[in-house]
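User: Here's a chain of 170 residues. Predict its fold as tokens.
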Amino acid sequence: DPCECGRAVTFVGKLDVHAHYLPAPYRELLEHSGHTRPDGMPQIPEWSAEAHVALMDRLGIATSLLSVSTPGVHFAPHASTADVARDVNEAGRRAVVDHPGRFGLLGSLPLPDVEATLAEIASCADELRVDGFILLTHVDGTYLGDPIWDPVFEELDRRHARVLVHPTSP
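Assistant: Prediction complete.
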């Protein structure tokens, strides 16, 4: 099938659409904010693009779509959610550029801030050229179907964006 750019896309190997990445600054922010066991995990795993590629090679995975998992980017009271989203999105883009063809990127959005989210959608789509977006099932108890986020879904729809909805603890 041709992609939006008009080129034919051929995959050899597996496509992993649910692959999480933990850039070092994000991992440090998680720890500093007390999120050492997100969603009951025994610990925050170590991550590097090189180790991820080595794992992909062992498992026959051609390309992984990277995304940030729970708790997302809205958890740190001392950090701007928009800044955290921008930092993880730029780190993900670096992995994509540094490992051509091995990674794609699902951009993180700074919900619940709708205006910042609309700006980050534009940045992710127009500058970082993400492959889609990751959304958590809720942010601080506000679930995706809440009308307050209608402008976000209207913009994602307008851009024909791909979205992966990731579960998070209620």
